[in-house]
Amino acid sequence: MAEEKKERPEPTNTVDAMKHIAQTSLDKSGEIVEGAADTLKGNVSGGIGKIIKSSTDIATNAAGKGTRILTQQFKKEEKDDSAPPPSGEKER
Fold first, then answer.
1. What is the CB-side half-sphere exposure of residue 47 using CA atoms within 13 A?
2. How far apart, in whole angstroms, are the C-alpha atoms of residue 18 and residue 65?
3. What are the angstrom distances between the C-alpha of 9 and each of 6, 12, 30, 39, 46?
4. Closest Cα partner for 30 from 64, 60, 53?
5. CB 75 within 8 A of CB 10
6. Residue 66: left (phi > 0), alpha (psi -120 to 50), or beta?
7. Which value, to the nearest 10 degrees, does the dihedral of the CA atoms of residues 23, 30, 54, 60 take?
8. pLDDT score of 41
């Protein structure tokens, strides 16, 4: 049942980072449910392993992206150099 998921691009701002956390958590919570189903079907070690891995992935992702949100460390978006700077800013 495990589908190949496309890798999400790295967030470039706070809103993107928050969306990334929510989407990843939702994906991984589905894997937790699959792990619970595996456990109930008798594959205890495989099911528990899937639950632990998915919950750890959620925590790691949330902590990493949360740190970026707090420190505002995002990749710079590509700038359009043809646009004039906003009023009050000097051109470099």
1. 12
2. 8
3. 9, 9, 21, 33, 30
4. 53
5. yes
6. alpha
7. 20
8. 95
Tokens linked to 32: 């937790």
**pTM of the model as a whole:** 0.65
Tens of pLDDT, residue by residue over 54-81, are 999 999 999 988 888 888 877 765 554 5
Do 11 and 64 touch, CB atoms closer than 8 A? no
More confident residue, 49 or 66: 49
Q: How many angstroms separate the CA atoms of 59 and 36, rounded?
A: 18
**Structural domain boundaries of the chain?**
14-68
Cα–Cα distance, 52 to 46 (Å, whole number): 10
How far apart, in whole angstroms, are the C-alpha atoms of residue 63 and residue 21? Answer: 9
